[in-house]
Fold each of these.
Amino acid sequence: MPYGDYTQYQKWNTSKCLSRQILAADDTTALNNVIAVKSANHQLFIQKIAFYETTESTGKNLTFQDDASTPVVLGKYFSVTAAAGIPKNGILDFGPQGYALTAGKNLDVIVSAAGVAGSLHIEAYEKIVSGAIHTGIAASGQ
């Protein structure tokens, strides 16, 4: 496998890629669990986050983190350019293996204030990290 092949990790595990619009009216509630794990035994690995702002929103930001009580914070997208009409782009790239979130926790996008709007794309995968014992066969010794 080539080192730079993001899709290979997604094929070996479960792809959890996402593309969606963030609307100016969206708040943190709308973006909770933007990517959810299948169960408490699964772990998300975030490979890349790209955000392309479509509406000027100087001074606002998006925070990408898991929903643990002490969250793993991946990073922030800041909209700080004062020049109106200039779109701002942000990319967080964690490589093909990705950045591990807390096992069993989902990815949240925290909005500092309404008004941030644009296109969000996330490359990610999930894999089983614990409790992967199959219990479907009776313990009868057969």
Amino acid sequence: MEELDFEVKLTSNSIDRCPGLKICINDSVYFSGEVLGENIVTFKASITDDFNLNISYAGNNPQDLILDDEGMPTNSVTVTIDSIKIEGVDITEIAYNYSKFKINKSQKYIDDYELTECMDLGLQGVWTLYVESPVYIWMLENL
């Protein structure tokens, strides 16, 4: 079993409202709430095997969006995953290269429901990074 320290830096383009966000290791929730401005979420997790680091984003409610003359939303809230550290090691580049953002299929007007190289969350979905154990070996192999 590995006891690991995690740090996830998130930035929202809103300071007064944000759809809900959860950070999980597999099914265990370590953060649940809003991201207003810049937030750094830190937590410890005991890991026994390979795991998924998941960030679930509730997405913008289409009924709340204000559209400009071209039909683009002017008030949508996005959350950016700025950095991810495990045991103080910055793995942001690994996260960018190997994560997937699976967009909820109920979102209309989306052609591709699974994005790679995506660190910006705006639509309802789950961002996932698969991490192998032992974590230090996985980090060395992928940095």
